[in-house]
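Thread: quick sanity check before group meeting

JM: Hey all, I'm pulling together slides for Thursday and realized we never actually wrote out the predicted structure for the chain we discussed last week. Dropping the sequence here so it's in one place. If anyone has concerns about the input, flag it before I start.
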Amino acid sequence: MSYQLFEVYGIELEYMLVDVATMKVKPVVDKLLTKKNGTLSSDVENGKIEWSNELVAHVVELKTNGPTANLDTLNDLFAENVGEINDLLKEFNAKLLPTAAHPLMDPETEMQLWQHNYSKIYALYNRIFDCRGHGWSNVQSMHINLPFLGDAEFEKLHAAVRILLPVIPGLSASSPIFEGKLTGFKDARMHVYKTNQKEIPEMTGKVIPEQIFSKKDYYSGIFEPINKAIKPHDTENILDHHFLNSRGAIARFDRGAIEIRVIDLQECPKADVAIAVLIIEALKLLVSEELVSLEDQKKWHENALFEIFNDVIVDAEATIIQNAAFADIFDLQPESSVKDLWSRIYSLVKENISEKHQNSIEFLLKNGSLSTRILKTLGENPSKAEITKVYEELGNCLQENRFFEV
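JM (edit): ok, ran it. Output follows.
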């Protein structure tokens, strides 16, 4: 079934499984899905939420079971499923860990590929890219799927998404630590995302998609170069260009949607869904052309947007917007911050957002990204024990569906 712009949404959340006692990653997603389903299946329907496996054996994905028009009950639905999964995991001395990156994982030694359905595809990915790095096995995100009907709606949505992508990590950054060390990036997940497919650069491009605004041009400008580049590696033709496209937003013409992928996972579904709501309202604002015309949105080259993105993954909401033309889109003064930008957007769309989500968004705008709050709690040279304590508390936040407060 086809849907029009902003008629329905699909939300996906990825969670890591860790050992209750040691906090080490626990590759038991197959046991979890088997316990829930009776037999092993890569997808388990649980009412309005579906559970599924990912590339690695320690990550489970929760997603809306088909498109939904109702974002107001979604955080409660995800929270109920988190609670159920944590109950099921007790038998395996495991639990879910939120945030976009495990702060202590050594992917070189701890990564295990999923060994069941689709394992042939994952094994091929591993052969081409070596999936032991953080960019493959230690990156949990939220994906938002937004529908479009035909080229005219694709053009509007893709133009708006491209403009917004660079500043999304200013809301969502939650990955400041790898292997027990501060990375210098509030969004280290997106820093490694840029290069984890460096062997075939056509797949990720500049993260920000190219200036392409029709299905025909997308196939010739993005899918065909990807297919050509992957052909020598994929001799059995088992990889699909829709999945190979790894830009920060990808067009899924097979289901008439654009999937946004630059959003770090938060500490609880309440935060994830609030961020999704604000992003969706920001895109509606851009699509309406109230701030800037469609033609002017389409003029932005990916290189200029990538520069802004590169700054934002370092400092998140504290990033100063150096590009005066970009600040001007949102009626901001030069040298405004990304926090100013999101506060400005929120002031324009607030009346369209339920009180429940307003409270969550206002908490985020006041207290900063999750990375900012984590770093504020830990200080400059945190010990392994201090990091573990903070992430134990983040696990509690997930179980109780509440914000991490400093």
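AS: nice. The beta strands are 10-19, 43-46, 49-53, 59-64, 94-97, 141-147, 177-178, 181-182, 249-252, 257-264. The mean pLDDT is 92.
JM: adding both to the slides.
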